[in-house]
Design brief:
Chain B: GO terms for molecular function: ribonucleoprotein complex binding; RNA binding. The structure holds two protein chains of two kinds. By secondary structure, chain A is an alpha+beta fold. Chain A has 14 helices and 35 strands. Classes of the chains: A alpha+beta, B alpha/beta.
Chain lengths: 783, 672
């Protein structure tokens, strides 16, 4: 502001000077005119204002009318008389507001102006020509533009000397020339120097070319700055505070309420806080400050508190689920630094140990011997071992293992010594050689003198049992093997049955022990059925149906040899079993479906097929030694039928996969079963359908099982592994006692050929001797 | 129809919990879980059926009892772990913000067990929980002692702070002091792994292993954090056990510890035991460090000690004297604390075991002696053992550390000197003298003080194990030592025992074999000396063959087939018969009387026959066994076979040992 004022002052002075200076008059015309313009401008402004006022007045009338209308509208509420003045005020206000809202930009009055009077003057220019001088257009920014500082040179940052040859020194914002201020001549300057105006500096304003004079305030400012004082002229930058309210003590209290208790009673809460601290200090939770190093040192020095942890110990029953860690075994002799020499490993042992993987080693150290203690080195694995122990302690699952610390022999059952179990066969007595190929079947005759064998060569041979001499032989077939031979079990005859293919031959061999009477008796037994058979057959056979078997004479050639009857059935017969009286015998041909089991009656030459249907393939069949029962073994089960009532009595289930053979104890209540899956099963028929004992001593299939029929508690089985096993199997008379079964002997001697070992066995009727038939073409007598 | 049962909702699946699940349930990290398991003594369990237990398809490896984990849930330590975790989180967060001073402050507050060896938590309650009675704690002390003694000998590393080692060492020494005072050390054994000690405290046998004083080699990947966790627990345990033991013998715990002495390597001597009350004070002090304390003037001390010793002996003698007449004049009851010996009056009654009431107390085995340890002997174990067995005066070379009764080898009071160096020949000794100067011993290496017993260290061990003083000649310096046997092996019937002569323990068969072999050898030698008659080659061969056969039978046990034996038997007979026949024939041909040989033959023949009989018997037995085995059920048979297997293995080992010994004995006999 100060500078502006200064400008104005200067201007006025200049104008003064101009008046004196005529020479420059022409030159400064423009300038003057300009100032005149300015001067003109102000009144015009006033005129505008006046006009505005007029307009507002006119408008005000409108407004008033409007207001009147408003009043009409509002007249219901307020009486208009009273508010006359107020209304006027309001109108004025409204006008003001209008002016503010439309700050004289209303174009209409301007146009009127244009129309009314010219907005230019005609003047003569320097050349004497007409020149229209227009009024300054007022942009009416209506802003308190403090930046607009009169004429400011706009030539930018170029030296002013460029304009030395011109009358002007640049242009203002409006593009008007800024004329060069008159440079006083020497005299003037002298005068100036003599009569120094206030604030004269002798400098020239670069922008305007005018001499730069400083105003009083500016000079004061400069002075203050030079003095190092605040530039602003304040009386006292730091005045004392005036305590307006507390300087005076009030006599009367602001409130008449009585003094509250909390003002004079000590605070409970604070007391609490303090007590807390006190307690903490007492208990040592809060310690007086110490430098950290010192405190650390103290802590280190502080001993760990020890006390009797087990002062009031109470023994507790150990948790049953808790298994205490096992202790490490104490060191043995071999861990000594100086062990007995036998504990040292040999070279091979050492090598083996070194070669083995560390995990495979039985001991993780090798015994070593040092002859003096000073030579003992550190043990390298000690830390590792300890670490492993630690790992075991925390990571190894513990399992309680009940170690039976007993003599293993105490597990073994107490068996009677073999000498008490004697007699039983132990060694081979006779070997019967003669058959070509396998011997398939053996049978000892009821008197115990002769032995009959049948083999793959199709012959049936009869031997003297004790000497092994062959006494009789017949070739029944040239191509088919003799599957089985069986003696008729009565002593009044000497009849042998043999099965070859589909044929069953009944024969009376010649033998030294056979007296002619016996021979004749035998022949009579066989022949007796012929007459009877023809009659019976013709009667019973239904027409058109093939008989189950044909009984016939085998032909003269065989008859001369002693073979008297040939029975032909439908399929290959594998098993023959006589009834104890010798009148019936059962044959089994496993491949024959319906007719697999047949019962033949010798006295009638009759063959019957007892079963219409059989569940499973029949393997073998036998008569009960005492009662009229008939046993048929299929692959899995043994069925027992009552022959009188013709009904099923019992089904025995040995549990074997494939039964090969079975035999009934002479007492009739026990049964042994041999199976192709290597099992020998003892059944107590009274006890259960399941086996009483299962014996698995063979490594191959069991082919044949046999009880001793002559009163000795023995039984034997024959297996494909080439052995016979003899068991002592005593069946007590007392019903409540269980039979005792004791393995007695393993008889080895037969060779295994084509995975076939011993094929058949038979016991001597009285003596503890047994005969076995082997696939190696021999039969052996064991005694 | 019942509710459909879901898998993993009941039964075994509920009883077991995998490790991951357990960690999740406890909301702690795996290392913290590990710590907790180690301290609380919780270990994994092996479920009967893994498949039923695991809920996931993948096979889990470690299962715990759910109940065990539930029990862990209430552990106060869990809270400490969590606090520690929070603190660590705070520190890391402060560091992440760059607030170093804050982090440092928090760090200062944090416990640093690895630095100070002291955590913020204590394990007292855990120990009380795991060992409800003191006896329980003693029972579990084996691992504790082994571990602490090992750590006391480890070098300090970042994983094993020096503080921890120092503490382990102190605890161990304190424990040793108790053993010395209470004379409860029983046995010790020098093994290749270290020295085993066995003590009997309150009826519990405690066995532990102390490594030799060498730098321990650390091989393989050993996680010292796990071991450190164990050691932390064991340290606390042994501290409390020591307290209890000390107070039980009327001593104050912890004993006074002299840092200066310890720095000079006094070890046991750095501790001064104090009695709890004044009455016991003087005595206990005298027990432990009577002489070790007063190092400066050993001679005076020795004299004093001698006097004291004499006095004590006299008093002992008096006591004994008093005792003996009292015993003799025991017509009227003389009440005493000693156990009475029960003698069976009439035969037929059972003999009950009774503690031995021997006149000589093994704990005072060395009480009358003064020992001197040469500088090459291991000082620590010897000092400990000698003290534990009543020795009061032990001197050693000054290089072995502080705390000796005397460091002067020439001290006249020394009765025994333990030496572990070879005998040097005189010529060498002259040269060696110059080098030996630094030990300030002006004596030749072979110099012996008269009237002193020189023994090797093993003498001490063998003496205490047998509870009698062994004859020192066997253990003289340079002598070949008798074998050092483990005192922990309990002789069982039928097992090889190196202390018993071979003849007493070998089986009949082995004896016969051995004799046969001997005979053969003699024969061979005889032949070589007199005639080159190859007549006996056959017999020899036969003998050997048989021997082999026999051995086969032995090793194969009963698994062998019987047929072989059957045939063998017959063949044997045949063979012998043919042999005989051949011999006769040859004799005829050569036309010589083979009397001399025949004598030997007769002898060997008898032997052969005996052997054959033996074999037959054996075969018989095998057959019987086979029959009996056949009668067993499958399960029992398997069990039987397993037992048989282990027995056979053991007996095979024993047999090997016997064979080796026989060979060695023969060699020795040949040499002499």
């Amino acid at each position: 502001m100060g500078s502006k004022l200064a400008d104005k002052k200067r201007k006025s002075r200049e104008s003064d000077s101009e008046s004196g200076d005529e020479l420059a008059n022409g030159l400064f015309d423009g300038v003057l005119s300009q100032s005149e313009d300015e001067e003109d401008y102000v009144p015009s402004d006033d005129a505008d204002e006046e006009e505005d006022a007029d307009e507002s007045g006119s408008e005000g009338t409108d407004d008033s009318e409007d207001n009147g209308e408003d009043d009409d509208i509002l007249s219901d509420d307020i009486p208009s008389d009273i508010d006359g003045e107020e209304e006027m005020n309001r109108l004025v206000k409204q006008q003001g507001e209008l002016e503010i809202t439309e700050p004289g930009v209303d174009p209409k009055p301007k146009e009127e102006d244009d129309n009314g009077e010219k907005n230019y003057r005609i003047e003569k220019d320097a050349n004497g020509g007409i020149r229209y001088v227009y009024d300054e257009i007022d942009p009416v920014y209506d802003s308190d533009d403090t930046d607009a500082q009169g004429p400011v040179n706009t030539i930018g940052n170029i030296p002013l000397s460029f304009y030395d040859s011109y009358p002007h020194i640049g242009y203002d914002i409006n593009g008007k020339k800024i004329m060069r201020p008159a440079a006083g001549d020497a005299l003037q300057s002298l005068l100036d120097s003599i009569e120094v105006p206030k604030g004269w500096t002798g400098l020239t304003d670069v922008n305007t070319g005018n001499p730069l004079n400083l105003s009083q305030e500016e000079l004061e400012l400069v002075r203050r700055v030079q003095m190092g004082l605040l530039p602003d002229d304040l009386q006292d930058p730091y005045p004392d505070t005036v305590e307006w309210f507390t300087s005076k003590e009030e006599i009367m209290p602001l409130s008449s309420a009585p003094e509250p208790k909390r003002r004079f009673v000590p605070s409970k809460n604070e007391a609490k806080q303090i007590m807390k601290l006190v307690r903490a200090i007492r208990e040592g939770r809060i310690l007086p400050y110490k430098p950290p190093e010192e405190r650390e040192r103290e802590e280190e020095e502080k001993e760990e508190a020890h006390f009797d942890l087990w002062q009031n110990e109470e023994p507790q029953a150990p948790n049953p689920m808790h298994i205490p860690a096992p202790k490490l075994p104490p060191p043995g002799y071999d861990l000594s630094y100086n062990p007995p020499e036998e504990y040292l490993p040999t070279k091979e042992e050492r090598e083996e140990w070194e070669k083995a993987d560390p995990e495979d080693r039985e001991k993780e150290y090798l015994p070593q011997k040092y002859n003096a203690l000073r030579k003992v080195p550190a043990y390298g694995n000690l830390v590792k071992e300890r670490f492993e122990r630690c790992m075991d302690l925390y990571l190894a699952p513990r399992v309680r293992k009940n170690r039976l610390n007993i003599d293993p022999n105490s597990l073994l059952p107490k068996l009677p010594s073999p000498s008490e179990l004697k007699p039983f066969p132990t060694v081979v007595q006779t070997i019967f050689r003669g058959h070509e190929g396998r011997v398939r079947s053996v049978a000892v005759d009821p008197t115990g003198v002769a032995l009959a064998t049948g083999g793959d060569d199709g012959t049936v041979r009869v031997w003297e049992l004790l000497t092994g001499r062959q006494v009789w032989s017949v070739r029944l077939s040239s191509d088919e093997p003799v599957n089985t031979v069986r003696w008729r079990p009565t002593k009044d005859s000497f009849i042998l049955a043999a099965a070859v293919g589909e044929d069953i031959f009944l024969m009376v061999p010649t033998h030294a022990s056979v007296t002619p009477a016996l021979d004749q008796a035998s022949r009579d037994v066989l022949a007796a059925g012929f007459g009877y058979a023809t009659n019976g057959q013709q009667q019973t056979l239904p027409a058109g149906k093939e008989p189950p078997a044909k009984w016939a004479r085998p032909g003269t050639k065989l008859e001369d040899e002693g073979v008297l009857i040939r029975i032909t059935v439908r399929t290959t017969v594998k098993v023959i079993n006589w009834h104890r009286r010798g009148d019936h015998f059962a044959t089994v041909s496993p491949t024959g479906q319906r007719s697999s089991v047949a019962i033949h009656t010798l006295s009638k030459h009759l063959t019957q097929i007892p079963f219409r249907k059989l569940s499973g393939l029949a393997q073998t069949a036998a008569f009960h030694p005492l009662r009229p029962l008939f046993f048929v073994a299929t692959q899995r089960t043994i069925r027992c039928y009552d022959l009188q009532k013709l009904e099923l009595v019992k089904i025995v289930q040995p549990g074997a996969k494939w039964i090969s053979s079975f035999d009934i104890h002479p007492g009739g209540d026990n049964l042994i079963v041999g199976s192709y899956d290597k099992r020998l099963l003892w059944h107590d028929l009274d006890l259960s359908n399941r086996p009483y004992k299962t014996m698995r001593f063979h490594s191959e299939a069991i082919r044949q099982v046999r009880y001793h029929k002559g009163g000795l508690p023995l039984f034997a089985d024959a297996s494909d592994d080439g052995t016979l096993q003899i068991f002592h199997g005593k069946v007590p008379n007392d019903q409540l006692e269980n039979p005792t079964i004791i393995p007695v002997k393993m008889l080895k001697g037969h060779k295994v050929i084509n995975k076939l070992g011993v094929l058949d066995i038979d016991w001597h009727p009285r003596e503890p001797w047994c005969v076995s038939a082997g696939a190696d073409g021999t039969a052996r007598l064991w005694m | 129809m019942g509710k459909i049962k879901k898998k993993g909702q009941a039964g075994q699946a509920k009883n077991y919990i995998t490790r991951t699940q357990a960690i999740k349930k406890l909301q702690i990290s795996l290392p913290d879980f590990r710590k907790l398991c180690i301290w609380k003594g919780i270990y994994p369990r092996e479920p009967r059926n893994r498949k039923k237990v695991s809920k996931s398809a993948t096979a889990s490896t470690t299962f715990y009892y759910t109940k065990d984990i539930q029990y862990l849930l209430h552990e106060p330590l869990l809270q400490k772990f969590r606090e520690q975790k929070v603190l660590e989180k705070k520190i890391s967060r402060a560091l992440g913000r760059g607030d170093v001073s804050d982090a440092a402050r928090l760090e200062r507050n944090a416990a640093h067990p690895e630095k100070t060896g002291k955590p913020r938590y204590t394990l007292n309650h855990v120990i009380r929980e795991r060992y409800p009675t003191f006896i329980d704690a003693l029972r579990d002390l084996d691992d504790c002692l082994s571990m602490l003694f090992l750590f006391a000998n480890l070098p300090s590393t970042t994983a094993v702070p020096a503080k921890m080692i120092a503490r382990c060492e102190r605890l161990c020494l304190e424990f040793q002091h108790y053993l010395i005072v209470s004379h409860s050390l029983r046995k010790s054994f020098l093994s290749i792994k270290g020295i085993y000690y066995q003590a009997n405290i309150q009826g519990e046998d405690i066995l532990w292993l102390v490594p030799y004083k060498f730098n321990q080699r650390i091989v393989g990947d050993i996680d010292f954090r796990i071991m450190g966790t164990f050691v932390e627990f064991y340290m606390t345990l042994l501290g409390f056990v020591n307290y209890r033991l000390y107070t039980s013998v009327g001593l104050k715990y912890p004993p006074k510890f002299d840092q200066l002495k310890d720095d000079q390597g006094a070890e046991l001597g750095a501790f001064a035991l104090e009695g709890v009350n004044l009455a016991t004070n003087g005595e206990t002090k005298a027990i432990t460090n009577g002489e070790a304390e007063r190092g400066p003037d050993p001679k005076v001390q020795a004299e004093v000690d001698k006097l004291v010793q004499q006095l004590r002996d006299e008093s002992n003698g008096e006591k004994a004297d008093e005792g003996s007449p009292a015993d003799e004049a025991d017509g009227e009851e003389n009440p005493s604390d000693a156990i009475d010996k029960f003698e069976p009056v009439a035969p037929g009654g059972d003999v009950l075991p009774q503690p031995s009431y021997s006149s000589s107390d093994p704990s005072q085995l060395f009480s009358k002696f003064t020992f001197y340890l040469s500088r090459e002997t291991p000082r620590q174990p010897l000092e400990f053992i000698l003290r534990a067995f009543g020795c009061k005066r032990i001197g050693w070379d000054s290089v072995l550390g502080e705390g000796a009764f005397t460091t002067d080898e020439s001290d006249p009071s020394i009765t025994h000197q333990i030496v572990d160096r070879p005998v040097v020949r005189a010529a060498v000794s002259g040269e060696g003298d110059g080098e030996d100067n630094q030990t300030a011993q002006k004596l030749g290496p072979n110099h012996r003080y008269p009237g002193r017993v020189y023994v090797q260290p093993q003498w001490v061990w063998d003496s205490i194990n047998d509870e009698e003083l062994k004859s020192p000649e066997l253990y003289a310096p340079g002598a070949a030592l008798p074998p050092h046997l483990s005192p922990f092996v309990k002789p069982t019937q039928g097992q090889y025992d190196p202390t018993i002569p071979l003849e007493e323990q070998q089986t009949e068969r082995e004896a016969i074999d051995a004799e046969l072999e001997d005979a053969n050898q003699e024969q061979q030698e005889g032949e070589e000396s007199e005639v080159e008659n190859d007549m006996d080659v056959a017999s020899e061969e036969g003998g050997e063959e048989e021997e082999e056969d026999g051995e086969d039978g032995d090793f194969g046990g009963f698994s062998e087939g019987e047929e072989e034996e059957e045939e063998e038997g017959s063949e044997d007979e045949e063979e012998s018969a043919t042999l005989q026949r051949q011999r006769e024939l040859e004799a005829e041909i050569s036309g010589k009387s083979v009397q001399g040989n025949k004598k030997v033959d007769a002898k060997t023949k008898a032997k052969l026959e005996a052997k054959k009989a033996l074999e037959r018997k054996k075969r018989q037995e095998a057959e019987d066994l086979e029959r009996a085995k056949g009668m067993l059920s499958k399960k029992k048979r398997k069990l039987f076979e397993q037992m048989q297997y282990t027995n056979n293995k053991k007996s095979a080992e024993d047999m090997k040992l016997r064979a080796k010994r026989r060979k060695l004995e023969k060699e020795r006999a040949q040499k002499t």
